Structure formats: C-alpha cells, structure tokens
C-alpha cells in the first residue's frame, strides 16, 4: 500500500478459524512503514464453534509475540483487540443477528459503521458441486455450513453457490468499503461475481485474481464481462475477485481503472 490511511478498519465476513484477519494483521505489520499505524480488525461468523476456534488462534498469537515488540506497540495493541463476533451475512437489515447489528457491538453508532477493507471467503460450493465434485475428504471432515450456502436462492443448483455474494456486495456498499477481496471457487464463479460488482457502479476497478496473482506482465489477460474488459491476474485457477473505489486506488498506488 503506497498511501495507507493511519487508522484502518478491516472486516472479514465468514471468518471461520480467523486465519484471514490474523494473517492480514501479520502481513500488515511486516512492513516497516506500517509499524506505527493502527488497524482495527473484526471477524464475523454464524458458527459458535468457528468463533471459539478463531479466538483460540488469536490467543496463540498473543502468547508468542516477537521479542522486539514493546507492550504498547501498535502491532500488539491491534492483535489483542481483534474482535470475533456472531453475525449472519444472509440476514437483511432489521433482522436479528444481521451483520450491521453485530458491528454495532464493536464500532458503536451508525455514523461509525464503515469499514475500509472488506474480505470474505464465504461458503461458495454449489449443491451440485458438493455432491459431484467435492472430494470425500472435504465432504466427510469439513463442516458443510462452511462450504455450501445454507439457503437456496432458486432452483438452479449450480448458481446457488453464489448466494452470499449479493449480500456481501450490498454490505460493502452500505459500509462504504474502499477495497474488497472475495474468494471464489473457480473462474466461472469469478466472472459471475465480477459481473455483480460491476453492476453496482461503485468500483473504479474490478479484477479477477488466480491462485498466484503476483506474476509478471505476461500473466495479465483480459476477459469480457458484460461488455467490459476485466483484468485477470496470475496463474492457476480463478480464486478471487478484487475491487476498489477511487479512494482505495490511492492506497494501492493505482492511477487508472481496470475495466
């Protein structure tokens, strides 16, 4: 980040084990320029077991801080203040347990209900893929709640894996997020999610990232999404959709739109 704001709020939806906010925290403070900055991280999940695991993983990190840290360092302060809270991404505003109600617990009044960066690795496996493609080792040993959306949006059992993305994108709009990164199953789902993001007309850039997005310029391609050219970065399978508003593009050091 070339111009990261001094106090950044980061939200991870469907946080599971909490690995994403914990990794974000680790990578953020690896950069020397960020060591005096503050980040406020919140992970949200519907599962009590997942929240217990995420808090356990946070405690493990706190028990083994680098020796160079002082007790009141921004890194340790931010790590100790990561919050993992219960919330249901699929619930609309006004319904009990919806994400915004959950965020009131940690961010206070409605005027403060914004986040700079929104991340999510939601359940994205379709009912059909779960039955026919998902490996037995995953089907038998990983919680289905973390893999397949719990509600079907329509009779199309291929697209029912997309159920979380409209809700997440709506939350990104409501929370005025400047940067979003959403994990997906494959390039086909990435195209569908990129299309949803572009229909919002919020984002200065929308990109699709493969498994290894940090490649050279030869690994940049473009595909057509609803008549617009969208950049696809890296090698491997389609893995995530990345989007940013104009304010976010300043943090990223970007000077042009990606579609």
Strand-pairing-aware structural class = alpha/beta
Our count of helices gives: 9
Poorly predicted sequence stretches spanning 5 or more consecutive residues: none
How many domains, as an integer? 1
Strand content: 15-25%
Main beta sheet strand tally, sense and closure: 9 strands, mixed
Order of adjacent strands in the largest pleated sheet:
3-2-1-4-5-9-6-8-7
SSE order, one letter for each helix or strand: EHEHHEHEHHHEHEEEEH
CATH topology: Rossmann fold
Q: Termini distance?
A: 21 Å
Shape: globular
**Overall helicity:** 25-40%
Spell out the CATH superfamily: Vaccinia Virus protein VP39
Mean pLDDT: 87
Regarding quaternary structure, what we see is single chain
Total strands: the figure is 9
The CATH class, by name, is Alpha Beta
Structure report:
The protein has a single domain (7-205), classed as 3-Layer(aba) Sandwich (Rossmann fold). It contains 9 helices and 9 strands. The chain is of the alpha/beta class and 259 residues long. The protein has helices at 19-30, 48-62, 74-80, 99-107, 127-132, 136-141, 164-174, 187-199, 246-252, and strands at 7-13, 38-45, 83-86, 117-120, 179-183, 205-212, 220-225, 228-233, 235-244. The protein has a 9-stranded mixed beta sheet with strand order 3-2-1-4-5-9-6-8-7, sandwiched between helices.
